[in-house]
């Protein structure tokens, strides 16, 4: 059996309003075990996709879509601590339409050690 190492992923979602487009960005950190950087990236994508969804606020639809894996860091087999940043939300400064297609699979971050 292969020993799994710990990884830290910073994942970003876009919050899109069906009338006005991109409203804000959300980020969260995840700590998990994986066999290598490639499988850790696939796990981070799966976690981000799991958190996607659409909600209704009044007459508007708000979509939460996975935008990218911001960072993916190797923490080791037995780390003494984990780098965690708090979940955050920030207002969007750019304009993207509601139906914008993100490509998080192409956001493969280089290994951080």
Descriptive notes:
This protein has 113 residues and is mostly beta strands. The protein has one domain (5-76, 94-102). The chain is 12% helix and 47% strand. The protein has one helix and five strands; from the N terminus they run E-E-H-E-E-E. The longest helix has 14 residues, at 37-50.
Number of domains: 1
Helix share of residues? 10-25%
Mean pLDDT: 90
* Main beta-sheet annotation: 5 strands, antiparallel
Please tally the helical runs, counting DSSP H or I stretches of 4 or more residues.
1
The count of β-strands is: 5
Strand order of the largest sheet: 3-4-1-2-5
Alpha carbon gap, first and last residue: 23 Å
- Please mark out the parts with pLDDT under 50 across 5 or more consecutive residues, or reply none: none
Radius of gyration: 16 Å
Note the beta-strand portion: over 45%
Question: Any key phrases for this structure?
Answer:
5 strands; 113 residues; mainly beta; 47% strand; 5-stranded antiparallel sheet; 1 helix
What is this structure's SSE topology?
Blueprint: E1 5-17, E2 21-34, H1 37-50, E3 53-57, E4 60-76, E5 88-91
Antiparallel strand pairs: 1-2, 1-4, 2-5, 3-4
Short description:
With 113 residues, the chain is mainly beta.
